[in-house]
Amino acid sequence: MKGREGWTPSGYVAYSKLCTHLGCPVGLYEQQLEMLVCPCHQSMFNVREAAIPTFGPAPRPLPQLPLAVNSDGHLIAAAGYNEPVGPGYWERP
Predict the structure, then answer these.
(1) Model confidence over 19-50: pLDDT tens digits?
(2) In the beta sheet, which residues pair with residue 64?
(3) Between vectors from CA 12 to CA 83 and to CA 70, what angle results, nearest 5°?
(4) Is there a contact between 77 and 66 (Cβ–Cβ < 8 Å)?
(5) Residue among 34, 56, 63 nearest 46 (CA)
(6) How many helices (H) and strands (E) does the chain have?
(7) In this structure, what is the dihedral angle of CA atoms 11, 16, 18, 22, given to the nearest 10 degrees?
């Protein structure tokens, strides 16, 4: 996705596991569709397109964690999530 070109070293990507609908754990993966799935209300997030919701009540994409590789060759977080994690009704600092 534009502006996130350096966030996925060697194709690795990291998204928040908290659904943006009600905060349930997005812990299922539909391999053929390449979608992350929230088991609570079946929101589906497109893994290849910035975790944009394509089905269900989730109102926004899953926040993404920019990744990098350090000098030792380990995968690390390059910064914090690009958006607040969890549902929008949670209080934000």
Answers:
(1) 999 999 999 999 999 999 999 999 999 999 99
(2) 15
(3) 90
(4) yes
(5) 34
(6) 0, 6
(7) -100
Q: Any idea of the CA torsion for 2, 32, 67, 21, to the nearest 10 degrees?
A: 80
Residue 1 tokens read as 């996705």
Q: pLDDT tens digit string along 43-82?
A: 999 999 999 999 999 999 999 999 999 999 999 999 999 9
> Which residues are marked as active site?
21, 41
84 Cβ contact partners less than 8 Å away, ≥ 6 residues apart: 63, 90, 92
By CB atoms closer than 10 A (0-12, 13-18, 19+), residue 73 is exposed
Pairwise CA distance, residues 67 & 10, whole Å = 10
Task: Enumerate residues 6+ apart whose C-beta is below 8 A from 16.
Answer: 26, 62, 63, 64, 65, 81, 85, 86
